[in-house]
């Protein structure tokens, strides 16, 4: 897979919205973008690599993942 961002180690990538409030448009979850990670995920046709965003909601310490393309900023970076 082509590296599309600055590699921070262990699959983590730099992203301009890290530490900023974002919304996952797929689920409506809002919170702080904690990480962007390259991960191998299982699909019905076999494993593939994807970039996932981890958002920490204000009311929870759990950081549900979403596709990187599903995030939108709630504030200016």
Summarize the structure.
By secondary structure, the protein is an all-beta fold. Helices cover 0% and strands 48% of the residues. It is built from no helices and seven strands.
Secondary-structure map:
Elements: E1 7-9, E2 12-13, E3 21-24, E4 30-41, E5 48-57, E6 65-67, E7 71-73
Antiparallel strand pairs: 1-2, 2-4, 3-4, 3-7, 4-5, 5-6
Structure description:
The chain is mainly β. The protein is built from no helices and 7 strands. It has strands at residues 7-9, 12-13, 21-24, 30-41, 48-57, 65-67, 71-73. Strands 1, 2, 3, 4, 5, 6 and 7 form a 7-stranded antiparallel β-sheet that branches. Strand 5 (48-57) and strand 6 form a beta hairpin. It is globular, with a radius of gyration of 13 Å.
Beta strand %: over 45%
Q: What distance lies between the first and last C-alpha atoms, to the nearest angstrom?
A: 27 Å
The secondary-structure class comes to mainly beta
Secondary-structure element sequence?
A: EEEEEEE
Number of strands: 7
What coarse outline follows from CA principal-axis ratios?
Answer: globular
Specify the helix fraction band.
under 10%
**How much is the average pLDDT?**
85
Most strands sheet:
7 strands, antiparallel
Model regions low in confidence, pLDDT < 50 over at least 5 residues: 1-5
């Amino acid at each position: 897979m082509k590296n599309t961002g600055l590699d921070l180690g262990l699959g983590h990538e730099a992203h301009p919205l890290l530490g900023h409030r974002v919304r996952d448009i797929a689920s409506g979850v809002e919170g702080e973008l904690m990480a962007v990670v390259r991960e191998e995920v299982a699909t019905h046709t076999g494993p593939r690599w994807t970039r996932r965003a981890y958002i920490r909601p204000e009311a929870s310490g759990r950081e549900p993942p979403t596709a990187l393309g599903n995030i939108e900023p709630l504030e200016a970076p």
